[in-house]
Amino acid sequence: MGKEVKQMLIVKSKVREYVKTLGEFNVAGDFVDALNQVAGKILYKAAERTKANGRKTVSAKDI
Prior knowledge:
- It is a single chain.
- The protein is mostly helical.
- The protein has 2 helices and no strands.
- The chain has a domain at 28-63.
- The chain is elongated and about 45 Å long.
- The mean pLDDT is 94.
């Protein structure tokens, strides 16, 4: 389901910054890559839903 994401969609520094606000946590090196793949799958599915509904604009309802 979906294509493997080969480009970075997630900003690593922003993820680290946000996680720090949640407590005294560190972010493992592989976490952001995994999060990037999840985001890519969500985007792929949203685009497929958009296409299936005969639209060209991906919107919040497609998530």
